[in-house]
């Protein structure tokens, strides 16, 4: 695996060299939300573990979810999943060879930002409204 | 990804992505919108075979997709020998996630 050809590979250009466009922002956000979901899935694993083995851990998790910090984490996870899912559809559409023209890609980038905020807001509203007492 | 399996990684990334679309929507609607459920209600929900299977699939296929994506991030930004270590850690995290989720769902479904 660790041959010389591999260690000589160039690194990707870093964030600061790009001029701001919404398509560039969506690309970076796609990767960032992917990394967030990586961490979030570990929290999801804690939730399933608690549900299977530890009612007291589960109630601690439930309590945390309703705290302000917990809400920010859940909201961040839900929006990240919404964004990554919708922008992933955009990627799959590109893979079919369509939607690649700049005006189209710009429109779909805006649509993904707006649509993911709406989807996340609906899901969070449903999740937290059900908590009541 | 720098392990001479670029084409299969590319295809598996798309394949797992396509599977994650319905699973992700189901997860958002089925799990997150029931955040307020207490322990008994949440357990009763996961005990239903369809919910248990879909939860396990969401985590397992998601872990597979995560491994490929994080592998890309490592390949893009890490040049040193640290790369090999990070790739191994990435593998282990994703394997642990799959095993842990399967074990938890199994216990809720059959050992409860």
Automatic annotation (TrEMBL), chain A:
GO terms, molecular function: electron transfer activity; metal ion binding
Coiled coil: none
Keyword entries, A-Z: Heme, Iron, Membrane, Metal-binding, Transmembrane, Transmembrane helix
Principal location class: membrane
SUPFAM superfamilies in the record: Fumarate reductase respiratory complex transmembrane subunits (SSF81343)
Any single GO BP term: tricarboxylic acid cycle
Gene3D superfamilies: Fumarate reductase/succinate dehydrogenase, transmembrane subunit (1.20.1300.10)
Cofactor: heme
Bilayer disposition of the protein: Multi-pass membrane protein
GO cellular component, one term: membrane
Residues where heme binds: 84
Cofactor binding note of this UniProt entry: The heme is bound between the two transmembrane subunits.
Transmembrane segments: 35-57, 69-89, 110-128
Cell compartment(s), UniProt: Membrane
PANTHER family for the chain: SUCCINATE DEHYDROGENASE CYTOCHROME B560 SUBUNIT (PTHR10978), SUCCINATE DEHYDROGENASE CYTOCHROME B560 SUBUNIT, MITOCHONDRIAL (PTHR10978:SF5)
Similarity annotation: Belongs to the cytochrome b560 family.
Assembly with partners or alone: Part of an enzyme complex containing four subunits: a flavoprotein, an iron-sulfur protein, plus two membrane-anchoring proteins, SdhC and SdhD. The complex can form homotrimers.
Function: Membrane-anchoring subunit of succinate dehydrogenase (SDH).
The protein's name: Succinate dehydrogenase cytochrome b556 subunit
Automatic annotation (TrEMBL), chain B:
Quaternary structure and partners: Part of an enzyme complex containing four subunits: a flavoprotein, an iron-sulfur protein, plus two membrane-anchoring proteins, SdhC and SdhD.
Name listed for the protein in its UniProt record: Succinate dehydrogenase hydrophobic membrane anchor subunit
Any one GO MF annotation of this record: metal ion binding
Annotated metabolic or biological route of this protein: Carbohydrate metabolism; tricarboxylic acid cycle
Keyword Transmembrane assigned: yes
Gene3D superfamilies: Fumarate reductase/succinate dehydrogenase, transmembrane subunit
Chief place where the protein resides: membrane
Membrane protein topology class: Multi-pass membrane protein
Record localization: Membrane
InterPro entries in the record: SQR/QFR_C/D, Succ_DH_anchor, SuccDH_FuR_B_TM-su
Residues that span the membrane, as ranges: 15-37, 49-67, 88-106
Record key words, sorted: Electron transport, Heme, Iron, Membrane, Metal-binding, Transmembrane, Transmembrane helix, Transport, Tricarboxylic acid cycle
Cofactor(s) in the UniProt record: heme
NCBIfam families xrefs: succ_dehyd_anc
Entry superkingdom: Bacteria
Protein's job: Membrane-anchoring subunit of succinate dehydrogenase (SDH).
Any one of the GO BP annotations: tricarboxylic acid cycle
Gene Ontology CC annotations of this record: membrane
The encoding gene: sdhD
Keyword Metal-binding listed: yes
SUPFAM superfamilies given in the database record: Fumarate reductase respiratory complex transmembrane subunits (SSF81343)
Residues making up the signal peptide according to the UniProt record: none
